[in-house]
Amino acid sequence: MSADDGTADDGIGDDGTEAGGTPAAGGQDPRATDPTRAPAPDAAPVPDAASEPDAVPAPDTPLLSAPATGLAALSLPFRVVGALALAAVLVLTGLHLSFLFLHVAPANTVSTRQAKAVNAWIYPEFEQNWKLFAPNPIQQNTTVQARASGLHADGTSFLTGWYDLSARDGAALHGEPLPSHTRQNVLRRAWDLYASSHDDDGRPVGTRGELSAAYLTRLATQRLERAGAGGPGAELTRIRVRARFTPVPPPPWSGEKLAGRPAYRTLDWAEAHR
Description:
alpha+beta, 6-stranded antiparallel beta sheet, transmembrane, DUF5819, DUF5819 family protein, membrane, transmembrane helix
């Protein structure tokens, strides 16, 4: 209560604002209607760097590209060589698959016309004993046997019995984790070579006849000497080779019958080769 005029002091100033500068409730800020008052300055604008004369423009940042990989990372000559090598591999793969298909497929016009080229590509590295769509695996076991005649250390002659050379090779390979493929097939291959280059009477057919006979005799001589044929100090002078053909028994569920007994083909005596 003011002592001068007897009115209550409610904290409203002469300009209509409450204490602290807040406009009085229900009133209007006199500064908004007073034309003589200068408007309140707004926030100071941020100067534009581009408008300043002394501003240095920021350099352009180049875009980083991913490093090239594969053939793109090589120079042009190396890329050309790589492309040619890749094309050669693709052509060779396609050629091999084509020859392999013609070899295992049933006989047709193309395979018959190109038989010489197909056989030259497939044999002997990729020899097969079956045909696609018409399997014809080997249905008999072929074992090579040999016997020898010669002289003992005291000069007396001897004649051995038959040695099963194939069985000895099989026994030597039994139990080996990595058996030799060559050792498994060398005797059978030697016999097949002899049989294909001689007729049924033992006469050579073609240019490989004498070579195949000498090769088979040499193998038999080496195996018999290794087996100790004739005893210590014996000298082998003549060798005789024969093949035993045993039909493979059919499985129980097939209903097929065993095709006969084992057959033999015995060759003439030949001079021992070492």
